[in-house]
Amino acid sequence: MRKYRDVAPEGDVPETRTTGLDPDFWYPFARSRDLKPGKTLAVKFAGTEIVLVRPDNGGAPYALEDRCAHRQVPLSMGVVKGEQLQCGYHCWAYDRSGACVSIPYLDRGRTLPNGVRGYGCREAYGFVFVFPGNQELADVTPVPELPTFGDRRYKTRVLDRDIACHYSFMHENLMDMNHQFLHRSLMGRIRAKLLDVREGEDWLEADYSFSRTEGKQSLGERLIIGSGNDDKYADLMTIRTGYPYQTLRYWTDGKREEPPALDLWNAYVPTDRAQHHNHTYGLIMIQKPPIPGVIHLLWPVITLFTEGIFGQDRVIVEAEQRAYETQGADLNNEVFPIIQSLKALLARRGVPIPPADC
Ligand code: FES
Ligand SMILES: [Fe+2]
After folding, report:
1. Which CATH number is 278's domain given?
2. Which of 65, 67, 70 to mutate to test the pocket of ligand 1 (most atoms within 8 A of CB)?
3. Which of 92, 108, 182, 322 is the most buried if burial means most Cβ atoms within 10 Å?
4. What is the pLDDT of residues 291-327, one digit of tens each?
5. Are residues 87 and 162 in the same domain?
């Protein structure tokens, strides 16, 4: 482990915005409940079109290149028959590996043509995960472990939305807790204090504590995190970019050995080729109050509050992306060393985005 002060780059890291996300990881591409038995879903990773398929019997889904090997039309327009996917045009049929297994009008004995690319596909935490990169790495790359998910002490809220910005703006937004000013209408005025930063080759984490300087805590915030930040700097928040994912944990009383009051996991999946858009999937695990069932009564308030916060974040990161596109360059003047380090990490661990004309 290195001290971040030794590795924080001098000044800013503009190439972050033109760096693509490494495809050699498991990414969520849909909520399991949205991929119905006998149906397909068209999704994208950085411009690569992928079809998700759920067999008729509701069994394990699979993922293929979303184009028919015959005339290149999307297989997502096809028909699921048993385990197979039939193209909607001339009914070429594909199995879950992407092999073409039948062409109804082809003479017997003729060799079937090559099929399409298949992608590793797994289901976990209520999401359909796909491995969009080098398939030889799929089996040796773990799906992220989220021990709090499914823990009966927590209730989980799912984030699932398209956001018009490069994934790096998402990481920087969450990591930089100096942006509490943005949330002043929902949270009052809060001052963040940076306690510690730790950094490795492909991860970076920061500890913060908070103090309310003006206004009152809203009910939604209190229900999620308790009244920690009313006591000056008694709480503890750890935000981590563990490439390519991001997590946030919050301990109301600052005791890391206790289960956190809030445990958030996010993945920002680029959809278009230039990676100016991402689909954010997240899981917010919120510890239930001790009285059974009360969490369900409080849930609408919690939902309203988290939607409000994420809505404000969305407006601002999309504005950052628009500025980047209008200016044609990353002119940011980043003064917070952690964010410089984070930008460097994302640039270092990412991959080139291919030029538009190749
Ligand atoms: S285009 Fe798909 S079967 Fe012909
Ligand atoms: Fe925010």
Report:
1. 3.90.380.10
2. 70
3. 92
4. 888 889 889 988 999 999 999 999 999 999 999 999 9
5. no
